[in-house]
Queue: 3 jobs
Job 1
Amino acid sequence: MNNVISINYIIATYSGISKKRERFDKGITPSTLQMHLDKLIELLPTTRIIKQITITRPKVDLNKCYKEYYEIKDKIDIIEKEFSIPVKVVDMNNYSTGVSYSQYRRAFQDYPNFDFYMLMEDDWIPIQKEFDTLLIREWEKHFPFHNSNAYLCLWYADIMKYKAHAAISVGIISNKALTELSKWCKMDTQLDQYHFSLALQHIGTEIRDFSYNGENWKILFWETSKGVIYDFSFTIKDKECLLAPLQYILKDKYGFQIVPKQTP
């Protein structure tokens, strides 16, 4: 693998109070970002091509947010001083940019010079050592070039009456894909998860997944309304996770259950 490859690891965040998230979260929601960074700090010594971590911070009413959510200075200091990886915090400029896909696009707008952008959420974490190298290896199985107009997500599927899209969208996307998207779609255009995929497909981006329906990596998803971890894998093989919801590493501590889920 070419050592000059660079990844900007983007964490989309939201500090707004969410009664829906709180219902089954065992009290972890206010410290979600802190726990994400703790896991990242654990794994960073095994990585090679994470060259920046970008935390996007949407504007939230100060009377309707978790005050402790962004208390992460000590963790940023560890990342920057021990691993020499810069951590950038990007403040979104209005209240309508809490959607993760606007945050990813803004991070690219501010830092457009990386080969890849790893699209993560505050409550999604890497699980494996060398996760950056593993993702690039998966990329090379699907696409001929590192600069292909392409996007590799955890799970690409047609579910819930939607056309095939990045149903679980965490993963990596190329600089070329985000560059082309920025030419076609204005920054102030809000894209939800489904329409983010459709917009990319409209500009010719090839979307694939690295899970192979669970044959390669397990497909887990935290169902907020049920308080369970759904397993969408299409196989009985007990594969490992590459990326997973935060609740996966807390399942033993808090009793979160993994439940096989048939695709609707």
Note: The chain has one domain: 7-212.
Job 2
Amino acid sequence: MHLTSFARWSALVLIIGASIVLGSCSHAGAGISAIAPSSPVPFVVTSESTLYAIRGRFVGEMRLTASHLSVTVTQGSVLSVGDYAEVRVEALIGGATATGWRKVAEGQATSIGAVTGGHSRPLSDSLHFDILLPDGFDPAVHWLAFEFSSSGDGMGPFTTYACSRANLLGVQGRITTDC
């Protein structure tokens, strides 16, 4: 009889605890709009192991607010297969689709200057991007990406990407087609 009352008491405690947790989660909602500004989340985004025309490795931190994602690249390097007089980089937010991924939101592109084929070139300054978040945004299912573009300078125009393996909360393990 003592075991039965213990089991009932344990079940009651679990039900009340679950109600409190679920109730607090339902008030937060799925999107970032209900979350206070976040602490900085460190990132390392790289496409160095790809065969893209231009590859990069960026290290820095990002911070979510109710309306935007602030991205600061503190260290980085760029490597290309050819010579490009003008390469632009843009931070963006990626999201999964049924067949791969898509751009969910993007910031302003900025020039990182010329890149010489076969040579890794460190960034000379830090880069900063602000990306406005769309309505209903959920950082748990989106990730940071960088887009490299150039008009080509005789090699033809191109666009390549470097994508994070972590979501915007810093949790590793994004499962989708590589971008």
Note: The mean pLDDT is 78.
Job 3
Amino acid sequence: MIFIVLFVAYLISWLVVLFSFIMSKKIVSAPLQCFTGSLGQGKTKIGVSQALKRLKRQRFKYALNLLDSKEIPVLYSNIPIVIKNSIIMKLFLLIFKGEKLPNYERNVQLKFEHLIMTEEVKEYSVVFIDEVSDIASQYQFDNPLVVQYIQTFVRYFRHFIDGYLIMTDQVTDNVTKPIRTRIGKVYNLSNFRRFLFHWYKVDVIDVFLTEDIQTIESEQLDSPPFFFGYLPYKYLKKIDWTRLFNYKQYETRAFKPLYEFSNLLEKDLDINGGLFTKYVISLPDNSDMKKKFRQQGFITRSDMLDYINKWQLALGIIKDKKQNESA
């Protein structure tokens, strides 16, 4: 009798899961997506899931020659992400393109050079930026690299790349206005919770950004829609040797090494295959460059490269050409 009860409960739980999935809010496939919310509300989880989903879609299109590109789309990210290539994906690429993919691969590290367009972002690729205000905060409203170059990258992203740009932040007000006003719609997340052990629900409100006005549909406040998805326990990722469903896509505390008192070892860092990182995208903040920008209203590409070179020399990121030649 107890087995019958357990079996019925099992069937009912799956019906509840199916119903929750059907009733959950679906994310629109837009070139630019932004997720906001307080700490631990699932911004990065959903953002990473969306980035991997869009990458998979782009690669299938590439395999079927639906993209006008000779290079496979890749994922650029400022945090380490593990990309799992399915058997179907690998077969498609092998059959139609003669290209081999590994079972697992890592993202390409997103650098400020990509954002200011001094290094190429491959066409039809996916770009994921976690905590975008670290790169383009409201306090950098007068930094020409943000106002002129990163704004241009965001503004013409579909024209230049025709891929997907996915961002997260805790509050959109922290993002500088030239970037913030181009987002359009923000998914604001709250009340993240587990549901029936291995699933999650998180309430979501669409925030529409038009000029300096934020608009929220009133019915969402009374009965907010929700996102629904799979959330395995950590132990499942360790004991599931098949890794069919339970593999670690990213580290929820990726920036932990930045904390001075962190006890992480070097082996845990992304440079050694780990998912923690010390890498933070920082931009030159030169007073002469800002002054010239205020006077002219723009900074030429040659001037920008000159300012960046001086900044990198000052930080010791690069060495002077004369020093290199003498060495």
Note: Residues 2-23 form the longest helix (22 residues).
